[in-house]
Backbone:
């Protein structure tokens, strides 16, 4: 199984990210090349990069299984202010360049929120923006993430993604599924095979290059987008276990984006990553009803 989680791109950049993934027993990872909510980016350090590549080799982590996530503030759907829209396009362009420098082949993007535009206009804006990027000459593929449909989010329905992909003048575009978002968008994950079949008819299963594995805090079709720990949400462990073992998505990296576990230490609230334990559960196929306590004990 190709499985990992999102990790930090901190002081040691790519090297730190790889080290963190290894500490979780992962063979895949997703990183933001800076804080997800802002556009401040430090220069790529080549020494860390070389060391990271060496560490990846030693630990059998393929660069194909390293995914980048574009910052949330990029919104290609809203063209209300030309300046902001152009900023989003340029920032995404720079992010693609950074990925190319790191050798990363996939970058996950939230298609965008149409805000005051209609969804149709929003989708048109996304297509126009992506066509500016000259994806044919990029070594990095953009993966449109399936969204929960919160507010005016575009891309929660298969049909919307299909329209975007068909509008783009390049084949260098794919999709990243997100189980929490799919649930919140109204697709029942207990019937994941039916979703995949529908997806295959409309877009083609070969376009799926990454899948975010998250449980959901909310019920089917809630349009909320709040992730829960594996087995602690409305989707449930058994359903998520079946999805990560789906034969048709065998070679697709599975990435966890579940919430950190909080622990009160005197007055301070500390947060611990659940990924080592969640990956272990998914590899073993056995739900751990003591997950939260185990994590708190492990990191004490
Ligand atoms: Fe995302
Ligand atoms: Fe996601
Ligand atoms: Zn989400």
Residues:
């Amino acid at each position: 199984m190709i499985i990992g989680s999102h990790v930090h791109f901190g002081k040691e950049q790519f090297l730190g990210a790889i080290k963190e993934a290894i500490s979780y027993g992962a063979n895949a990872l997703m990183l933001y090349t800076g804080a997800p909510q802002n556009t401040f980016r430090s220069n790529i350090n080549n020494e860390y990069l070389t060391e990271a590549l060496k560490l990846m080799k030693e630990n059998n982590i393929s660069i194909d299984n390293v995914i980048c996530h574009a910052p949330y503030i990029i919104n290609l759907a809203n063209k209300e202010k030309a300046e902001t829209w152009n900023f989003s396009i340029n920032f995404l362009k720079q992010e693609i360049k950074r990925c190319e420098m790191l050798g990363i082949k996939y970058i996950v993007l939230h298609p965008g929120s149409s805000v005051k535009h209609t969804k149709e206009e929003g989708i048109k804006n996304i297509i126009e923006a992506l066509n500016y990027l000259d994806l044919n000459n990029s070594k990095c593929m953009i993966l449109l993430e399936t969204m929960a449909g919160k507010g005016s989010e575009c891309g929660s329905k298969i049909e919307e993604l299909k329209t975007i992909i068909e509008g783009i003048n390049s084949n260098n575009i794919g999709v990243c599924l997100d189980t929490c978002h799919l649930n919140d968008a109204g697709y029942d994950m207990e019937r994941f095979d039916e979703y995949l079949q529908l997806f295959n008819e409309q877009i083609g299963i070969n376009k799926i290059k990454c899948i975010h594995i998250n449980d959901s805090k909310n019920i089917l079709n809630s349009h909320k987008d709040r992730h829960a720990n594996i087995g602690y949400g409305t989707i449930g462990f058994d359903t998520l276990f079946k999805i990560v073992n789906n034969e048709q998505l065998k070679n697709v990296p599975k990435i966890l984006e579940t919430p950190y576990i909080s622990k009160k230490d005197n007055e301070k609230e500390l947060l611990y990553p659940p990924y080592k334990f969640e990956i272990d559960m998914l590899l073993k196929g056995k739900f751990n009803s003591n997950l939260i306590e185990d994590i708190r004990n492990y990191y004490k």
Q: What stands out?
A: The two ends are 29 Å apart (CA to CA).
